Amino acid sequence: MKPRMGQGLGRATTPHSADTDMGETQIIGATSIDRNRELQRVEAALKRLERGQFGHCLYCGDRIDLERLQHDPAVESCDTCEED
Ligand SMILES: [Zn+2]
């Protein structure tokens, strides 16, 4: 009787499918946060475009290198300020 109970408990305490579900949820959560942040950066860049401030550093107001903007159009700072 005792061994049978042990087996039953062992199966119950290792819910394999639940572990897999948790892992997948965590991965999806991380990517959706990344996507959210990226969206906010793009929206901020569009607002700067509306105000005629696009392509200028948020911190010092200098023009951002064209190469930098081509690499990441939503970039918010120039080379100098990025390093700080
Ligand atoms: Zn700057």
UniProtKB/TrEMBL annotation:
**Gene3D superfamilies (UniProt xref):** DksA, coiled-coil domain
Annotated dksA C4-type zinc fingers sit at: 57-81
What superkingdom heads the lineage? Bacteria
Q: Region annotation Disordered: residue ranges? A: 1-31
PANTHER family according to UniProt: GENERAL STRESS PROTEIN 16O (PTHR33823:SF4), RNA POLYMERASE-BINDING TRANSCRIPTION FACTOR DKSA-RELATED (PTHR33823)
Spell out the protein name for this chain. Answer: DksA C4-type domain-containing protein
